[in-house]
Amino acid sequence: xxxxxxxxxxxxxxxxxxxxxxxxxxxxxxxxxxxxxxxxxxxxxxxxxxxxxxxxxxxxxxxxxxxxxxxxxxxxxxxxx
Length: 81
Ligand code: HEM
Known about the structure:
Layout lengths: L8 H5 L2 E2 L3 E6 L2 E4 L22 H6 L6 H8 L2 E4 L1
Antiparallel strand pairs: 1-2, 2-3, 3-4
The structure holds protoporphyrin IX containing FE.
């Protein structure tokens, strides 16, 4: 049912600042989290993942392994890798 665009890692990497937009990847999907950065309970740390994968950071901050966090993330999906 998904017809979201396919993005390359290179395109994702271009979006690694609030000016360019902040995109991240998680399990093969691409998320534009620009509008979530200011709402993040963990503050600016979220920008460490900008332009890349969430997995290494969420492995460190296991608080993200909850359904309510994944629900938030799902709202920002813009494509697939
Ligand atoms: C906490 C979402 C990325 C570090 C949280 C919480 C949410 C959230 C909802 C609160 C969880 C709770 O209390 O139940 C997200 C989303 C992310 C993201 C949607 C990506 C799109 C990151 C990254 C890092 C990070 C990349 C670190 C590099 C933290 C930390 C907390 C936190 C340290 C705990 C804050 C505290 O309770 O003092 N995040 N997060 N987050 N996040 Fe994230």
